[in-house]
Each structure stands twice: as C-alpha cells, then as structure tokens.
Amino acid sequence: MRYALIFILFVSLLEAQQFKTTVGLETIHIFQQYRVIDIDTNMYTSEARAIVGLSFSPVFSGGNLSLSNNFGCGTKTIKDDLYATINRNFKNFMITTKLNFSGAIYTVDKPGYYDYAIGNLALNLSRNYKKLSAMISAHTGGKTNEITDYDYYEWGLGSSLNYNLNLTNRIRFYLSFDRRDYRGNFYKSYMRMYPGLSLELLWGERSQANFGVWYDARAVDKPYEAESNNTFTIQHDLSAHLGKDFFFIINVNLDFRTYKVQDFVHYNYRELSLLSGIKYDNFTLSLSFAPSLNYFNADTVYFAEPYYEFGFQAAFGIMKLKKVWFDITNEIGKRTYFNKTEFSFSTPYTYYNITLNGKLWIAKNITFNLFGNYSPEWHTNASENLVLTYISGNIKYEF
Predict the structure, then answer these.
(1) Which candidate, 204, 200, 121, places its Cα nearest to that of 156?
(2) Coil, strand or helix: which one is 5?
(3) Nearest to 173 by CA among 232, 202, 213
(4) How far apart are CA 38 and CA 48, in angstroms?
(5) Of the candidates 11, 19, 23, 109, which lies 20 to 30 Å from 145 by C-alpha distance?
(6) Could you tell me the fold of the domain covering 2-398?
(7) What are the backbone dihedrals phi and psi of residue 183, each rounded to the nearest 5 degrees, phi first?
(8) What is the CB neighbour count within 10 angstroms for residue 335?
(9) Cα–Cα distance between 200 and 207 in angstroms, integer?
C-alpha cells in the first residue's frame, strides 16, 4: 500500500510539473575545398539524423530540478547529450549541482568505435548579502576521443565576487585554478590560473557598456615547461543610444601573449580586433554597418608573419516572439602581411564570411532551425585559395 501511494504521488508530480518531449529530423553538411601541390582537393561530409529530446523541470520546496536528454540516431553516428541541474535554496545561500555527459559512437565505417565522450560535474555555492554576492565552485570532468592521445582529465576551483554599484551597474571579480592532464604528448598537461575583473554599466534609455581585463597564466608540465605562457586580455563593448532606435557601437579586444621560451612554434605576439559603427534596433528589426580592423604582430625572427586586416561588416536581424528569429552577418575584407622575410610563405588574400542563424515557427509546436556559414579566401597565389561551407538544419515538434 505504501509503495502504491508513493507511485501515485510520483505520477501526480510528473503531471503537475513541466514535462516536454521533442522529436525531429536533422541534417548536417560540411564542404571544404583547397589545393595540395597544384591538385584541387574537395572534402565533403554529411549526415542525416533522427532526434528525440526529453526535458523535465519540477519545482519542489526549497529548490528546483532541470533534467534534459537529447538523443540522435544518424546515418553515421549515434549521439546522446544529458544535462542535469539541481538548485537547492537554504536560508542564507544556494547550492547548485550540474552534471552533463555527451558522447557519440560510429554506426558505419568503424561500427562500435566511439567518436568522443565527455563528462563534467560542477558544484557551486552562492550567497547574497545586500549589494554583494559571492560564489565558490568546484568542477571535475574529462574527455576521451577516437584518438586517445587527445584524452584528458581536469579539475578546478573558482570564485567570483559581485558588487552592485546601483540597480543597473556592477563590478565583478573572478579567480579560478584549473588542472588538465592529457594522456598523450600531442597536447601538454598544464596548471592554469585565471583572474579577471569586469565592469558592467547601463544608463539612459538603452545604453550599455562592458569593460573587462583577464590574465591567463599556464604552467606546462616538464619536460615541456618552455611552452608555459601568459596571456593578458583587454575587452570593451559599447552600445551608446543616439536617439530613437539608433546606436553607436564599438567592440575592442586586445591580447598580449608571452612564452617562457620562444621558438619557431611558440612566440610572443600582440593581437588587436576592433569593430565600430552604427546600429538600428527597434526590438523587431535590427541593422548594423561597421568597418573592422584586425592587427597581429610578433617577432619575425621566429617565422611569425605579422599582418593587418581591413574589413566591413553588415548585419541584419528580425525577431518576432514565437513567429520568427533570423540573423545574418556579412563581412568582407583583405589581409595584408608586412615585414615579410625570405622565410615567409603566406600571401595576401581577400576574404568573405557570411553566417546565417534562424528559427521559424511553422506552427505553435513546430519549429525549423537553420545555421549556415560560407567562408571563401581568394589569395594572390591562387594555389592557396580556400573555401569552407557548413550547413545544418532541423525541424522539431514539441509536445
């Protein structure tokens, strides 16, 4: 009798909480074209896949659970992605536990052999106190691949401290320590320290800005300690409201990397990415136009090939709730190398990049999702021309 009551309560819980099922079809196509020793080479791969997704999100006294599993059976592989999150609220703090597992095995070519398997477990403890909020975290996980030399195991500890200047502006401080051990020697095992500081601002009607600095210090294990490196990053994003639905936008990213010992593969460098222009956004329609600059410089004595790129980016987007979401970005530009030496081998080229990402609600519970990217390069030396195309799409029914 007791077990019958437990079963009835469990079924009632399932009915009372949000339980969703998704079924659909998915297709992926990848095409790459390049030249090797004056011979045109084409690489093409595609796969069709049936997909099934289950999600369960019950709310209980003092917390909630989010559980989802996405399974796909394709013409070449079988994939599965499992995610679970448990939030437990206590009087003065909250504990969050996250678990995910992803894997794929081949069904043709190499039946029974796995492509990859990934597993991660994370535990977060957070506390809010007036204008301050703090979090400490621990995680562990690993990945195994078809090529076992790429296998790794990792663990880490992290913390963050947020201070709210007011209702819309805040400062964040991050600090984490990670350890990753690789099975083989293709990648090198290392210990990593990652502190960071960011400032988030909102003002006026719709203006916002983010400024951050990060320091990534990696100590590589012996006997490859010469590859140990430090990277200092400065990032700034600004969207300033000009009136009506127009904005001035700017995105800046600056990286400085230094190695313990430089060689022809690992050398110190500086890299700058800058994009600035005008954006129109009325919450339904968005348009942006912006020139871009990318600059890379390093010591040419180590065969580095400094370059700069000038380009122009145009983006267009539409968003109507539960009807359509669509975003397309076009960029065209030219890369030019400078300080070339007799050992330089790359030639200047013109590049074009178009990325499309969208979602269409065919009916209330039926959606069509599409992602595509086309990236050709036209070099002054035609033998270096390159074309990469990626297209994926799926149709899903949710009930």
Answers:
(1) 121
(2) helix
(3) 213
(4) 33
(5) 23
(6) Maltoporin; Chain A (2.40.170)
(7) -75, -40
(8) 19
(9) 11
Contact 196, 234 (CB under 8 A): no
User: For residues 224-258, b (16+ Cβ closer than 10 Å) or e, as one string?
Assistant: eeebbbbbebebbbbbbbeeebebebebbbbbebe
Neighbour-count burial of 378, counting CB atoms closer than 10 A to its CB (0-12 exposed, 13-18 middle, 19+ buried): middle
Structure-token pair, residue 28: 């992926």
For residue 221, the 8-state DSSP code is P
Using one digit for the tens of pLDDT, what is the confidence trace for 258-281? 999 988 888 899 999 999 999 999
Could you tell me how many residues make up the chain?
Answer: 399
Which residues contact residue 177 at a Cβ distance below 8 angstroms, ignoring those fewer than 6 apart? 156, 157, 158, 191, 192, 193, 194
Q: How far apart are the first and last CA of the chain?
A: 33
Token pair belonging to 353: 């990049």
Residue 265: Cβ within 10 Å count: 9
* DSSP E strand stretches across 260-365: 269-281, 285-298, 307-320, 324-337, 349-363
pLDDT at site 154 = 95
| 55-69, 106-120, 204-218, 328-342: least confident range | 106-120
DSSP 107: S
Helices marked H in the chain: 2-16
Report strand pairing: 18-36 vs 307-320.
unpaired
**Contact call for residues 343 and 328 (beta carbons, < 8 A):** no
Contact by Cβ (8 Å): 122, 139: yes
Q: Where do the domains of the chain lie?
A: 2-398
Residue 4 — φ and ψ, nearest 5°?
-65, -40
**Locate tokens 């033998």: which residue?**
383
pLDDT in tens, 296-332: 998 767 767 889 999 999 999 999 988 999 999 999 9
pTM: 0.84
| pLDDT score at 183 | 87
How far is the C-alpha of 269 from the C-alpha of 282, rounded, in Å?
41
Say which residues have a Cβ less than 8 Å from residue 235's Cβ, sequence separation at least 6.
210, 211, 212, 213, 214, 252, 253, 254
